[in-house]
TrEMBL record:
Lineage: Eukaryota, Metazoa, Chordata, Craniata, Vertebrata
GO molecular-function term, one example from the UniProt record: hormone activity
Subunit structure: Heterodimer of a common alpha chain and a unique beta chain which confers biological specificity to thyrotropin, lutropin, follitropin and gonadotropin.
Chief site of localization: secreted
Top-level taxonomic group: Eukaryota
Protein name: Thyrotropin subunit beta
């Protein structure tokens, strides 16, 4: 029917401009070998879906045309936390990014991890303290 065709066309058009890429709450677990505690830090990261297309003519296109969009930082700031239980000779500070806003774009390896699968390393091996 005409309504179905119009709905599909609207969905395809709107889907290209809309994404579900936004700041999302996340907990980072940080510990240093010298310190007595693991610090759980609540922050925001960019997470979500970005519309992308995979070309069938990969051999005909330049490499720069093949990169796919990912949910990445548009604006971010850094905050610093103090890891408790560190000896005096150790620097007890840890700086981490906080997503202010996000966008769909090319992954920048200067400040993002651009791998498909991540290794599960976000856990504590020491007693945990919460950073507010």
């Amino acid at each position: 029917s005409l309504f179905f065709v119009m709905s599909v066309l609207f969905g395809l058009t709107f889907g290209q401009t809309a994404s579900l890429c936004a700041p999302s709450e996340y907990t980072i677990h940080v510990e240093k070998r010298e310190c007595a505690y693991c610090l759980a830090i609540n922050t925001t990261i960019c997470a979500g879906f970005c519309m992308t297309r995979d070309s069938n003519g990969k051999k005909l296109l330049l490499k720069s045309a093949l990169s796919q969009n990912v949910c990445t930082y548009k604006e971010m700031l850094y905050q610093t936390a103090l890891i408790p239980g560190c000896p005096h000779h150790t620097i007890p500070y840890y700086s981490y990014p906080v997503a202010v806003s996000c966008k769909c774009g090319k992954c920048n390896t200067d400040y993002s991890d651009c791998v498909r699968e991540r290794v599960r390393t976000n856990y504590c091996t020491k007693p945990q303290k919460l950073c507010n």
